[in-house]
Description:
26% helix; alpha+beta; single chain
Amino acid sequence: MSSNTYTIREIQSADNKQIASVIRNVLIEFGVPKVGTAYEDKALDCMFETYNKPKSCYYVIVYQNTVVGGAGIMQLQKAQNTICELQKMYFLPIARGKGLGEKMMQHCLKKAKEFGFESCYLETLPYMKNAQKLYKKVGFKSLNSPLGETGHYNCNMWMLKQL
């Protein structure tokens, strides 16, 4: 799917370095702690391999042959097998404000339904206001406590959407 010259596609192994850089740069931009968040996830350096398994997928946004964002879904660890997690959704500034976040989420949520998941969970931070607006717009509801085990103990906002 394209939006002007932005293309959303499944991750390829050649994208690993670029998407790791995108995610770390966005986390630094927002002042996210480097511990207890996605910043320290070992998966960041091998995203293709991490999501290249059953009931998992990761999409990237490509602009002028450069990865500028991404998001994926995977079974939520230590939770019911009907709950997936929207993971590692980060966009560089060049990809923001263009409706790509909503398109990316629709890709991920559609795939989650195809995989048989019944609900989708996510974690975020209080100061990521634009992300929260988007999550609410597509139907995520706030939770009072976390689900499963993500290892992101510094992410203290939790949301869930029925699929």
